[in-house]
Amino acid sequence: MSAVLEVTNIKKNFGGISAVADVSFDVREGEILGLIGPNGCGKSTLFNCILGQLTPSGGEVKLDGKVVTGLRPSELNKLGVSRTFQLLQVFPKLSVRENLILAGQEHQGNMASRLVGRSDAGLTEAANQMIGFFKLDHLAAEPAGGLSYGQQKLLDAAMAFMGGPRLVLLDEPAGGVNPSMLADLKDRLVAINRQKNATFVVIEHNMEFVMSLCSRVMVMAEGKVLAMGRPDEVRKNPAVIEAYLGH
Ligand SMILES: Nc1ncnc2c1ncn2[C@@H]1O[C@H](COP(=O)(O)OP(=O)(O)OP(=O)(O)O)[C@@H](O)[C@H]1O
């Protein structure tokens, strides 16, 4: 399997703090890679360096073999990279369908089409398909702000897929979601991974969720990679247990 994402010796310092210290890993085509580690170990900073939100202090990021280090988020978006954030990014007053259409427009990044094209930018059909896929049909016309938190997280994840991305980085998709919605969320992420051959990297604190969703898990501690392997290997790694118990 070829690597979709190759991260080599990425570093990020904030003044005297080394938030990410020389991290290297790759993500294979069609894989769901989990990224875990205690609070403050550098997971979000690493995501932000990969996604162009932060400029790394050193190192290189390659997408499909091409160097993309330092590209802006909008440029990465055009290359098929999408993300979700820890905090919800939905617009509460807009309906579920309108949120999805807006997300599709963001991925297209085409202001001209918004000004002179159809008001839905031709995205209603794609939004309806995504609504069906994420089983949000009964909520399509509802304002997103009226949905439960778990339903809004599902919508937030669906929005990341509107551009038909090749690589999606999900930042705590299960955070705050109740157990019954978690099963739906996992089921939909697995389905979209298989059907659309999208590759994921998932930051998550919910161990059950991440261990059952991911094919490999990378563990960070104090800005470094502590372990990388199959969920069952990582679970019993003494250094990983120590890193968690130590905190
Ligand atoms: N903009 C910033 N300026 C200064 N220090 C920062 C900044 N962003 C993060 N840090 C520091 O970098 C380190 C890594 O933080 P980061 O948010 O990447 O960790 P994390 O693993 O994502 O944590 P969490 O699981 O709590 O979200 C922490 O010590 C944090 O305080």
TrEMBL record:
Keywords for the protein's UniProt record, in alphabetical order: ATP-binding, Nucleotide-binding, Transport
Superkingdom to which the source organism belongs: Bacteria
InterPro entries referenced in this protein's UniProt entry, alphabetically: AAA+_ATPase (IPR003593), ABC_AA/LPS_Transport (IPR051120), ABC_transporter-like_ATP-bd (IPR003439), BCA_ABC_TP_C (IPR032823), P-loop_NTPase (IPR027417)
Coiled coil regions, renumbered to chain: none
Any one GO CC term of the record: plasma membrane
Signal peptide: none
GO molecular function: ATP binding; ATP hydrolysis activity
A Pfam family per the record: BCA_ABC_TP_C
Domain ABC transporter: 5-247
CDD domains in the record: ABC_Mj1267_LivG_branched
PANTHER family, per database record: CONSERVED COMPONENT OF ABC TRANSPORTER FOR NATURAL AMINO ACIDS, CONSERVED COMPONENT OF ABC TRANSPORTER FOR NATURAL AMINO ACIDS-RELATED
Protein's job: Involved in beta-(1-->2)glucan export. Transmembrane domains (TMD) form a pore in the inner membrane and the ATP-binding domain (NBD) is responsible for energy generation.
Protein's name according to its UniProt entry: ABC transporter ATP-binding protein
